Amino acid sequence: MRHVIVPRAPRRSTHVRLPLRKAGDYPVAIFSLAVTLDASGAVTSIGADVGSVEPTARRWYQLEAELIGRPLDPAHAAEKAEGHCAALRPRDGVEAPGWYRLKVLPSLVRKAVSALREQL
User: Fold this and answer.
1) At 22, is the pLDDT very low, low, confident or very high (cuts 50, 70, 90)?
2) Residue 47's domain spans which residues?
């Protein structure tokens, strides 16, 4: 028998999604965020993932680079997300067109960062 011990880390995470009722609650866009903060509240490590926008889920490294070293700020995060949406290749689907997936993504980023701030 083997055991795995994972040390507890002061990491906070959240997962937000925008489902459409007409699509059977299938998400139009998903954003997941995990951060570790230092004593001053600045982000020291981060993982940002986007799903359901492109054909496969992926890390959003460009957004991570914008948020590292700064305090959690929903408005700043949403603004940076909007600027980096152009690098994504959204997919069209029966539940939503690609342009709509990109349009709602910054608001999901704002919601995720707000949720993390509430955890503090």
Assistant:
1) low
2) 11-119
Q: Which one is predicted more confidently, 21 or 67?
A: 67
Q: What is the CB-side half-sphere exposure of residue 115 using CA atoms within 13 A?
A: 17
- Tokens standing for 79? 């603004």
Strand partners, 35: 12, 46
Domain of 95, CATH number, reads 3.30.390.50
Would you state the pLDDT for residue 25? 74
34-39 average pLDDT score? 95
- In sequence order, which residues have a C-beta less than 8 Å from that of residue 114 and are 6 or more positions away? 74
C-alpha distances (whole Å) from 26 to each of 14, 22, 39 are 19, 9, 38
| Residue 4 belongs to some domain of the structure | no
Q: What letters, b where the CB count within 10 A reaches 16 and e where it falls short, cover 52-74?
A: bbeeeeeebebbbebbeeeebbb
Number of domains in the chain: 1
Note whether residue 1 is domain-resident. no
